[in-house]
């Protein structure tokens, strides 16, 4: 929790205002029993009825002021809660977006969403409302106990005996409940992940009639979440019931002891009334302290989860102050990464094209992840115009090199907004040109709202081929210096792909094309074949056919011997 104090310190003025409301409210609570005593003993007991309107008005104004001060306290404590939540959530989200690819392999979307949504809110709530309320309980209990002892030491005996016992029970409740909060936080993330996977993959789920399986899978998670919360509630109820019972006993013992003292003429009825009011002011803190400690324990569990994400330092660091280079001349020199990429070297001159082929799992996508620094190689260097990309700004890299992945992600927005998202400037002519080159213009114009058509979450209202064409257009509208197509035409029909391949030749940029189809890479200036992360063949289309190796075998399997002879 201490690591997040800096977020709370941003709201010092709000803490001061809320604390002022808290203190003034307690002062009113301590003053009201005196008015009650005067009303009972002097106005009623001594029959000074002329003072009754003044005393009643004073009592009314006291309760009114107590309400005003309570409003000030809670209003500003809620503002603190929202402010801290916003600050922690923003910091966490910013940190997550700065991480490299390895971070997202280790942390699932469900975990991260739970940290951002649920745990940030728990932390904010504890630093705002709960912290102020906890301080109020402590100060209120001390002040009321001292006031009661000053009023009558004898009548304070039940309080002095039972209040520490209730405090101990509340502490034990917090200790026992604490062990459930970590588990509940983890289970919340798993349940969110399970639900998100089933909903995101609803087409696949329905296509394979897996609805019952997904229902059972979610039900198992939901049942575990339910069981944990039931166990937590049982713990809360057991201790809360005991605390409530002791508070009622304390209240009853005070009245009983007061009645005995009145009969012995040791105290007045007004003194008993004021003492009972003080005791009543001590009951609610004891019944609430258990809940407050539980919320603080929940916040501590959330803080640990958030900190576990924040202490992951997989940020992509730029080693020098290079903003950009003149030419995008890409060179891989003896690049290796874990057991996936092994000693890979190649060079792509500006305006040239490189084709990459290989079986699934051969390392094609990982090899290209180094270009935009989603991953960094363990050894070897990747340079652009002779400068190590670790010394180049990420902004330059990612604006100069545009990726189109096979697994297309589109936002729940219009086609136009998907194309221009993140761009500072654009023109309608550039958008139309990008749509035309990507073979998407005709189908976009056929839609009722054309480019303003809403495509649904992840583009669910479009076919696979349509989504791929829009993803290509999104890259082209940025006028990249290097266009990387990572098996991004796999959903296109042969005719559309051939037309797109023709359009590629007119693009004034370097091109890297990853594909399983020979037809996608055969016109590239160089083609490399990957196997187990190593380059096993390289050359032009004709050179590779002449080798009669793996490329040749793939060509024969896809296009046949006759085409090869031609």
Automatic annotation (TrEMBL):
<keyword id="KW-0472">Membrane</keyword>
<keyword id="KW-0813">Transport</keyword>
<dbReference type="Pfam" id="PF00005">
    <property type="entry name" value="ABC_tran"/>
</dbReference>
<dbReference type="InterPro" id="IPR036640">
    <property type="entry name" value="ABC1_TM_sf"/>
</dbReference>
<dbReference type="InterPro" id="IPR003439">
    <property type="entry name" value="ABC_transporter-like_ATP-bd"/>
</dbReference>
<keyword id="KW-0812">Transmembrane</keyword>
<keyword id="KW-0067">ATP-binding</keyword>
<feature type="transmembrane region" description="Helical">
    <location>
        <begin position="48"/>
        <end position="69"/>
    </location>
</feature>
<dbReference type="GO" id="GO:0034040">
    <property type="term" value="F:ATPase-coupled lipid transmembrane transporter activity"/>
</dbReference>
<dbReference type="GO" id="GO:0005524">
    <property type="term" value="F:ATP binding"/>
</dbReference>
<keyword id="KW-1133">Transmembrane helix</keyword>
<dbReference type="InterPro" id="IPR039421">
    <property type="entry name" value="Type_1_exporter"/>
</dbReference>
<dbReference type="InterPro" id="IPR017871">
    <property type="entry name" value="ABC_transporter-like_CS"/>
</dbReference>
<protein>
    <submittedName>
        <fullName>ABC transporter ATP-binding protein</fullName>
    </submittedName>
</protein>
<feature type="transmembrane region" description="Helical">
    <location>
        <begin position="153"/>
        <end position="171"/>
    </location>
</feature>
<feature type="transmembrane region" description="Helical">
    <location>
        <begin position="15"/>
        <end position="36"/>
    </location>
</feature>
<feature type="transmembrane region" description="Helical">
    <location>
        <begin position="249"/>
        <end position="273"/>
    </location>
</feature>
<feature type="transmembrane region" description="Helical">
    <location>
        <begin position="123"/>
        <end position="147"/>
    </location>
</feature>
<dbReference type="InterPro" id="IPR011527">
    <property type="entry name" value="ABC1_TM_dom"/>
</dbReference>
<dbReference type="GO" id="GO:0140359">
    <property type="term" value="F:ABC-type transporter activity"/>
</dbReference>
<feature type="domain" description="ABC transmembrane type-1">
    <location>
        <begin position="16"/>
        <end position="298"/>
    </location>
</feature>
<dbReference type="GO" id="GO:0005886">
    <property type="term" value="C:plasma membrane"/>
</dbReference>
<keyword id="KW-0547">Nucleotide-binding</keyword>
<dbReference type="GO" id="GO:0016887">
    <property type="term" value="F:ATP hydrolysis activity"/>
</dbReference>
<dbReference type="InterPro" id="IPR003593">
    <property type="entry name" value="AAA+_ATPase"/>
</dbReference>
<dbReference type="InterPro" id="IPR027417">
    <property type="entry name" value="P-loop_NTPase"/>
</dbReference>
<feature type="domain" description="ABC transporter">
    <location>
        <begin position="325"/>
        <end position="557"/>
    </location>
</feature>
<keyword id="KW-1003">Cell membrane</keyword>
<dbReference type="Pfam" id="PF00664">
    <property type="entry name" value="ABC_membrane"/>
</dbReference>
């Amino acid at each position: 929790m201490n690591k997040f104090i800096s977020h709370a310190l941003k709201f010092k003025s709000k803490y001061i205002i809320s604390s002022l409301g808290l203190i003034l409210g307690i002062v009113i609570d301590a003053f009201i029993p005196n008015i009650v005593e005067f009303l009972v003993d002097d106005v009623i007991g001594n029959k000074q009825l002329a003072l009754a309107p003044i005393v009643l008005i004073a009592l009314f104004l006291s309760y009114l002021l107590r309400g005003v001060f309570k409003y000030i306290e809670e209003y500003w404590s809620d503002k603190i809660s929202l402010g801290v939540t916003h600050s922690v959530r923003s910091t966490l989200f910013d940190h997550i977006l700065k991480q490299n690819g390895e971070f997202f392999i280790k942390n699932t979307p469900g975990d991260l969403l739970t940290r951002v949504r649920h745990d940030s809110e728990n932390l904010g709530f504890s630093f705002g409302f709960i912290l102020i309320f906890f301080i109020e309980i402590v100060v209120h209990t001390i002040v009321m106990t001292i006031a009661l002892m000053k009023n009558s030491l004898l009548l304070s005996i039940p309080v002095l005996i039972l209040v520490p016992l209730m405090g101990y029970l509340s502490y034990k409740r917090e200790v026992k409940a604490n062990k459930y909060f970590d588990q509940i936080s983890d289970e919340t993330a798993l349940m969110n992940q399970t639900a998100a996977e089933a909903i995101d993959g609803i087409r696949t789920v329905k296509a394979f009639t897996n609805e019952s399986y997904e229902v059972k899978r979610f039900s198992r998670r939901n049942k575990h979440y339910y069981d944990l919360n039931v166990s937590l509630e049982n713990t809360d109820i057991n201790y809360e019931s005991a605390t409530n019972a002791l508070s009622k006993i304390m209240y009853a013992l005070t009245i009983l002891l007061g009645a005995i003292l009145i009969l012995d003429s040791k105290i007045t009825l007004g003194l008993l009334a004021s003492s009972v009011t003080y005791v009543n002011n001590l009951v609610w803190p004891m019944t609430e302290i258990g809940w407050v400690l539980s919320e603080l324990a929940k916040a501590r569990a959330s803080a640990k989860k958030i900190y576990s994400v924040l202490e992951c330092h997989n940020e992509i660091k730029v080693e020098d102050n290079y903003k950009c280079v003149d030419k995008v001349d890409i060179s891989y020199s003896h690049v290796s990464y874990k057991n996936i990429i092994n000693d890979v070297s190649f060079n792509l001159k500006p305006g040239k094209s490189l084709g990459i082929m290989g079986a699934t799992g051969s390392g094609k996508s990982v090899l290209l992840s180094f270009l935009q620094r989603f991953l960094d190689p363990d050894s070897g260097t990747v340079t652009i115009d002779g400068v190590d990309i670790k010394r180049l700004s990420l902004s330059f890299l990612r604006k100069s090199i545009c990726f189109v992945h096979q697994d297309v992600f589109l936002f729940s927005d219009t086609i136009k907004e998907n194309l221009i998202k993140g761009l500072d400037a654009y023109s309608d002519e550039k958008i139309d040109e990008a749509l035309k080159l990507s073979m998407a213009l005709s189908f976009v114009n056929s839609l009722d709202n054309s480019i303003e058509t809403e495509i649904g979450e992840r583009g669910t209202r479009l076919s696979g081929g349509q989504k791929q064409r829009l993803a290509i257009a999104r890259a082209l509208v940025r006028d990249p210096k290097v266009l990387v197509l990572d098996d991004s035409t796999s959903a296109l029909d042969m005719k559309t792909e051939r037309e797109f391949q023709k359009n590629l030749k007119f693009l004034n940029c370097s091109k890297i094309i990853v594909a399983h189809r020979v037809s996608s890479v055969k016109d590239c200036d160089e083609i490399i074949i990957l196997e187990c992360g190593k380059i096993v063949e390289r050359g032009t289309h004709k050179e590779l056919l002449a080798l009669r190796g793996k490329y040749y075998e793939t060509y024969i399997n896809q296009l046949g011997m006759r085409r090869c002879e031609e």
